[in-house]
């Protein structure tokens, strides 16, 4: 995998989300909400894709939006379906996610990213706009939410959620990559400093409240969780984000365990996929492709004590039922 960096500054350059059509209840972009029509393509290794996995589980959209899981190990053609029989996704009939990208735009030569939502009848990619995908699951697919589904993007809190999401994206979600992929010392140190300054700020916020916004789980918690759950396994060592481990930051460690132990979170996390992807794909950082044995991840199931703070994960709703058999992770079976 070639990591794109700015030759002058050494900063990591992230590819834009080129395909930004929206699947909406009124179909205004030409893609109407329709159960069974779309397939969500993810890697369980990818934090951006993991957001969509968590939201889909919490809202109960498994039976409305099918799931394709890519191999955590990419080759030069990017995400591939080598986990499936004959190396083909059984619904889309393709070997590589890039095939859906090129059906949507034959001359597309940009990055191939997950999550991606593909229109099953045409085989075309609809969107890879990961920030909007989860918001639309919450706001446009409401007709197909399960009974008791939480409101992950409550209207009264949207401005606050959006503000926190912007800060968390810049200084946490993206900053770990900017530190890990930097090609110059100054770029690395800038990302490192922003990351830990923001984690300290978030720790202070969460010391007196159970969730980031309001009294229930929201989109903001999900976006922070997917970085925190990967922190000790890959970002601390592989990306040199090593001022502290997550386990050495008491408030954030308890907060992350609280979420992990909530149905809909831990059952989307596959530490094996996470570790193999980062250590075996990023050969510019880890040319030996050796996957470390540690750290010990058993602490994720230990008591967190966050129940003493005000807040209920699902508010007046209910936890999701166990995942469908097709969605069960090998690590959690």
- The SSE order reads EHEHEEHHHHHHH
- Ends distance: 31 Å
Secondary-structure-based class equals mainly alpha
Neighbour order of strands in the largest sheet: 2-1-3-4
Broad shape: globular
Question: How is the CATH topology of the largest domain named?
Answer: Glutathione S-transferase Yfyf (Class Pi), Chain A, domain 2
Question: Roughly what percent helix?
Answer: 25-40%
Taken together, the total number of domains comes to 2
Beta content comes to 5-15%
Mean pLDDT metric: 95
Radius of gyration: 19 Å
Uncertain runs are none
Secondary structure tally, helices = 9
- CATH class of the largest domain equals Mainly Alpha
* Largest sheet descriptor: 4 strands, mixed
CATH A-level architecture of the largest domain: Up-down Bundle
Q: Please tally the β strands and state the result.
A: 4
Structure write-up:
The chain is globular. The protein has a 4-stranded mixed β-sheet with strand order 2-1-3-4, sandwiched between helices. A hairpin with a 4-residue loop joins strand 3 (116-119) and strand 4. Helix 4 packs parallel to helix 6 and helix 5 (185-206) packs across helix 8 (250-260). It has 9 helices and 4 strands; from the N terminus they run E-H-E-H-E-E-H-H-H-H-H-H-H. Helix content is 34%, strand content 5%. It has 333 residues and is mainly alpha-helical.
């Amino acid at each position: 995998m070639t990591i794109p960096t700015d030759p002058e500054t050494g900063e990591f350059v992230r590819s834009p989300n080129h395909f930004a059509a929206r699947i909406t209840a009124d179909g205004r972009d030409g893609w109407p909400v329709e159960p069974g029509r779309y397939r969500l393509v993810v890697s369980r290794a990818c934090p951006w894709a993991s957001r969509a996995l968590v939201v889909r589980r919490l809202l109960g959209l498994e039976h409305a939006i099918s799931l394709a899981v890519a191999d955590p190990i990419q080759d030069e053609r990017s995400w591939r379906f080598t986990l499936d029989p004959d190396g083909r996704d059984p619904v889309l009939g393709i070997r590589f996610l890039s095939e859906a990208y090129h059906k949507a735009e034959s001359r597309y030569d940009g990055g191939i990213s997950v999550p991606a939502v593909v229109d099953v009848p045409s085989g075309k990619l609809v969107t890879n706009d990961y920030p909007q995908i989860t918001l639309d699951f919450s706001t446009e697919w409401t007709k197909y939410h399960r009974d008791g589904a939480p409101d992950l993007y409550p209207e009264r809190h949207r401005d606050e959620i959006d503000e926190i999401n912007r800060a968390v994206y810049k200084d946490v979600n993206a900053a770990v990559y900017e530190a890990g992929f930097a090609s110059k010392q100054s770029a690395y140190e800038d990302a490192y400093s922003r990351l830990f300054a923001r984690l300290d700020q978030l720790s202070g916020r969460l010391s007196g409240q159970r969730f980031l916004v309001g009294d229930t789980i929201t989109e903001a918690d999900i976006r922070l969780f997917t970085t925190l759950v990967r922190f000790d396994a890959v970002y601390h060592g592989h990306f040199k984000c090593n001022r502290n481990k997550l386990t050495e930051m008491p408030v954030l460690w308890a907060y992350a365990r609280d979420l992990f132990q909530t149905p809909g979170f831990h059952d989307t996390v596959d530490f094996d996929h996470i570790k193999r992807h980062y250590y075996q794909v990023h050969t510019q950082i880890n040319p030996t492709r050796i996957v470390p044995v540690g750290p010990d991840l058993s602490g994720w199931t230990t008591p967190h004590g966050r129940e003493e703070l005000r807040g209920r994960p699902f508010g007046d709703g209910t936890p999701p039922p166990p995942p469908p058999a097709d969605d069960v992770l090998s690590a959690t079976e």
